[in-house]
Amino acid sequence: MQEIMLTQESIQEFVAEWYRKLDVHVPMVEILPLLADSELECVFPEVTVYGYAGFESWYQRVIRTFFDEVHTVTKADATIDGDTATVDVVVHWEASVWNAPEATSKRIDADAYQTWTLIAGPNGSPILTKYVVDDFVPREGSASL
After folding, report:
1. 75 pairs with which residues across the strands?
2. Which InterPro entries match (predicted)?
3. SS3 assignment, position 143
4. What is the pLDDT, as a whole number, of residue 1?
5. With contact defined as beta carbons under 8 Å apart, do 22 and 67 qualify?
6. How many Å from the N-terminal Cα to the C-terminal Cα in the chain?
7. Alpha-carbon distances, residue 32 vs 64, 119, 144 (angstroms)
8. Torsion sign over Cα 31, 42, 6, 92
9. Which residues lie below 8 Å from residue 9, measured CB to CB, with a gap of 6+?
10. pTM value?
């Protein structure tokens, strides 16, 4: 039986698909196959979550807070070691947010520096086990979170 390995191409596709799904606020059921439930740890600026339940709680809050999101990946460099990869990700994020009762929405414009850990799933597709936002840098003129 041939061993299934992660590739640079599969990781690049995974990163692009991840942010496409976040931009359009897909249902959680479309994100679950990308996540490793029992091993999942996500360290966001505001909270650290674990497993499917923790991620879903974070995701449901985010999709109800931010809209008109655009994630642009500017870096996704992977170091692959067998069936595990560490990925250095930089993403430019723009999103609107409206906080009641303010008269208008505000625009967030920032760069997020992240470190991901991926494993090869049963079919060789990457699965996210760890997602760490190492730094979050608002650009000039950005609204605050």
Report:
1. 90
2. NTF2-like_dom_sf (IPR032710)
3. coil
4. 44
5. no
6. 49
7. 19, 15, 29
8. positive
9. none
10. 0.93
